[in-house]
Amino acid sequence: MEYKVVMYSEGLLGSILLGQSRVNTEKFSEFLNGYGRDGWDVVTMEKERRRELLFFSREAFMVILKRTKQ
C-alpha cells in the first residue's frame, strides 16, 4: 500500500471579492475523480478554513489517499 496527502482549495480571488471562498462541489468532484482514475481511494479528509492575506479566508480540504503500490 502507498499513501498520499493532497490539499484542495479554491482560488484566492473569491476570498478577496466575497470575503470568503467556498469549495465548488463540481470542481472538487473532478479533483477526486482524477485521483480515482489513477487508482487512488480516499481514506479520510478534513475540512479546514485557511487564512489568506490577514482578513480573508477560504475552505480547504486535506485528503488522505491510498492505493496498492505499483
Please, could you describe this protein's structure?
There is one protein chain. The chain has 70 residues and is an alpha+beta fold. The protein has one domain (2-67). It has helices at residues 12-18, 25-37, and strands at residues 2-9, 20-21, 41-52, 56-67. Strands 1, 2, 3 and 4 form a 4-stranded mixed beta sheet that branches. It is elongated, with a radius of gyration of 14 Å.
Low-confidence stretches: none
Query: What is the tally of beta strands?
Result: 4
| Helical percentage | 25-40%
| Sheet with the most strands, sense and barrel status | 4 strands, mixed
Distance between the termini: 9 Å
Number of domains: 1
What structural category arises from helix and sheet content?
A: alpha+beta
Count the helices. How many?
2
The multimeric state of the shown protein is: single chain
- Rounded mean pLDDT score: 81
Order of helices and strands: EHEHEE
Q: What general outline do the C-alpha atoms trace?
A: elongated
Rounded to the nearest angstrom, the radius of gyration is 14 Å
Query: What percentage of the residues does DSSP assign to strands (E)?
Result: over 45%
